Structures are given as structure tokens and as C-alpha cells.
Amino acid sequence: MDSFCRGHQRTKAGRVGTIEDLAALYGEVAAPSIVKEVDHIHPVYRPFIEAAPFAVLATAGPGGLDATPRGDPAGFVHIEDDRTLLLPDRRGNNRIDSLRNIIADPRVALLFLIPGVGETLRVHGTAEIRADDDLLSRFAVAGQRPRTVLRITVSSVFFQCSRAVIRAGLWNPDSRIDRSHLPSVGTVFRALSEAAIDGEAYDQALPDRVANTLY
Predict the structure, then answer these.
(1) Which domains occur in the chain, in start order?
(2) How far apart are CA 155 and CA 127, in angstroms?
(3) By the 8 A CB rule, do 139 and 146 touch?
(4) What is the spatial distance between Cα 206 and Cα 195, in angstroms, rounded to a whole number?
(5) For residue 121, which of 87, 157, 71 has the smallest C-alpha distance?
């Protein structure tokens, strides 16, 4: 009986529980998937970071995992050198889940997305939280400095192929959903607070609040 059949027999009942089970189901890694991973920001990967206006920052800590959006004009993640990235932490809700995690566990991952481009770029490394006065000033926008800047030491960089983006129709205009088809932010707050928060008032104030507190 070949390895695929053995793996299928082990896993057909449900849970895949071992590395061997995974290997039997998925087979060998294709050579290009190995070649594309490097331990620094290679010149061919630099343009992806410089063109990305959006990234997802992943962290882990005692309280669990966190994945949070980060966005600004393209190039907002600054390439200091081929092993160092600088990421400003813009104004938010002050939960600072990702920053709390980094204090406990410096490992981070970034997923860069570029509108209209199928490939994404993945960066792994470790981060430290910086509040140097000159560094904060470098990332000021409209006179507003970030509270902190992440200094990320890169350990791994590789691109992800376009299959997931294509399957999702992510950049296809026909896939866009009208915001009114989903619960408004005020509706969510009203439901979760059992009406302690006035959802209608929250929705009315939200556009101005967001516009006035971007930075």
C-alpha cells in the first residue's frame, strides 16, 4: 500500500493529527516554494513592501493570538536596511493587543497586500517597540506623530501566490459588497452592550470621528 493510501486511511475518519499524516495528504514541497524564501529583504521583494498600503500584523502572547490591520499611504512600512523594517503604530482604540503581545513575545509576521495585485508578501521576524523622539518625528503625518514605532528584524521573506486572492475575487469590482448589507458599527455596539450604547447616535457621529482621528 503506498503512502497516500496509508495516509488516507488514517485521516478519512476526521482529524489529521501528525506531521506524517500531513505529508501523506499533501506530498512534497515544490522546489520553487523553497527557493522563494530568503532571510532578508531581497531587491526583488523590496518593491512589494514599497507599493503596499496595507498589511496585517500577527503577534502572539500570553493572552493568545492577534492579527490586526495596518494601513497608510504606500510605503508606510519603511525599509531601513535589508534586514530591518520600521512600522509606525497609528492612532487606534488603545487596546494595543499586538503591542502587549510583543512585550511578552517579540515574534511577528506581516502579510502585505497591494490593491490589484494577486501576490502577497509575507515577512517574519522579531520586533521591538521604540519611542525615540527622532524616530517618531520621522513618521509624523499632519503634525501628528505615532505613539510608537515597531523596529522589526527580518528573519524570513517570501511571496504567496495569487490563488487565494483570485478565488476570493478580492480585487474584482463585481465582488464588492455594499456596506449597508452588513450590520452598522452602531448596530453591533447596541447589540453587544444590550442597548447601553445608543447605536443610532454612534453611527451618526462615526464618520466625523474617524475623519478627525486618523492620525
Answers:
(1) 46-167 (2.30.110.10), 177-212 (no CATH)
(2) 11
(3) yes
(4) 17
(5) 157
- pTM greater than the 0.85 cutoff: yes
Are 97 and 34 spatial neighbours (Cβ–Cβ below 8 Å)? no
- Take residue 197 and report the three cell numbers written for it: 450604547
Cell representation of residue 187: 448596530
Distance, in Å, from the CA atom of 149 to the CA atom of 139, rounded to the nearest integer, reads 8
Question: Which triple of cell numbers denotes residue 175?
Answer: 465582488
DSSP string, the chain: --HHHHHHHHHTTS---SHHHHHHHH-PPPHHHHHT-BSS--TTTHHHHHH-SEEEEEEEETTEEEEEEEE-STT-SEEEETTEEEEEE----S--HHHHHHHH--EEEEEEE-TT-S-EEEEEEEEEEE--HHHHHHT-BTTB--SEEEEEEEEEEEEE-SHHHHHHTTT-GGG---GGGS--HHHHHHHHTTTSS-HHHHHHHHHHHHHH---
Please name the amino acid found at residue 115.
Answer: P
83-136 pLDDT per residue, tens = 999 999 999 999 999 999 999 999 999 999 999 999 999 999 999 999 999 999
> Rounded to whole angstroms, how far apart are CA atoms 116 and 53?
12
Look-up: residue for cell 527557493? 35
Look up residue 82 and give its three cell numbers: 535589508
